[in-house]
């Protein structure tokens, strides 16, 4: 069996069973665990499955499952790096910006270069990244730590962002659908993200193309609440539909 054929069958199996581990896939397809891990890495890189400890789960069936931080960081890395570089170029000297939690917003933060900027965030990884930049004034929200994704959540977090006014919010995304709007996998984060949106003069969504044409558990906001979308690739017609709703779409090269 060729690799591409095997990966297609693996994906079909995972979508049907919702999750699978390396041992069962190795036995099922008669190949080594090393080969299976390589196949799963390829599928995860394409955003087709979600890596977990010892295996994977289907991205199409887990609408309300919080994806672990380690899995997010390993998914679509190159696209996120390109998005981060372009989006960081939108930050101006003396801007006050909010970074939503997430692996793509982390890439934006990493690309801030020698600017006087004030950064507000509830993401521990972003906070650690900003702590090494001497020109950045860092403000971290209060809240309770969500250990799987290294973010702060809860009433304290929401109140923190409700009491500020900033130039730009860089917002992550779990799913975009032209009818349903922007949605999030967990209800726990929705109020915080809404407060981040309400605090900003400009809302810039940063996401890779695997999030398009999808709906997950909780509605976050309408597409019209987003000012700009920075993305690695997008269908021409889909781009036009977003622009009709008032979103400026920036496709990174």
TrEMBL record:
<keyword id="KW-0238">DNA-binding</keyword>
<dbReference type="GO" id="GO:0003677">
    <property type="term" value="F:DNA binding"/>
</dbReference>
<keyword id="KW-0804">Transcription</keyword>
<dbReference type="InterPro" id="IPR036388">
    <property type="entry name" value="WH-like_DNA-bd_sf"/>
</dbReference>
<dbReference type="InterPro" id="IPR036390">
    <property type="entry name" value="WH_DNA-bd_sf"/>
</dbReference>
<dbReference type="InterPro" id="IPR001034">
    <property type="entry name" value="DeoR_HTH"/>
</dbReference>
<keyword id="KW-0805">Transcription regulation</keyword>
<dbReference type="Pfam" id="PF00455">
    <property type="entry name" value="DeoRC"/>
</dbReference>
<dbReference type="InterPro" id="IPR014036">
    <property type="entry name" value="DeoR-like_C"/>
</dbReference>
<dbReference type="InterPro" id="IPR018356">
    <property type="entry name" value="Tscrpt_reg_HTH_DeoR_CS"/>
</dbReference>
<dbReference type="Pfam" id="PF08220">
    <property type="entry name" value="HTH_DeoR"/>
</dbReference>
<feature type="domain" description="HTH deoR-type">
    <location>
        <begin position="3"/>
        <end position="58"/>
    </location>
</feature>
<protein>
    <submittedName>
        <fullName>Transcriptional regulator, DeoR family</fullName>
    </submittedName>
</protein>
<dbReference type="InterPro" id="IPR050313">
    <property type="entry name" value="Carb_Metab_HTH_regulators"/>
</dbReference>
<dbReference type="GO" id="GO:0003700">
    <property type="term" value="F:DNA-binding transcription factor activity"/>
</dbReference>
<dbReference type="InterPro" id="IPR037171">
    <property type="entry name" value="NagB/RpiA_transferase-like"/>
</dbReference>
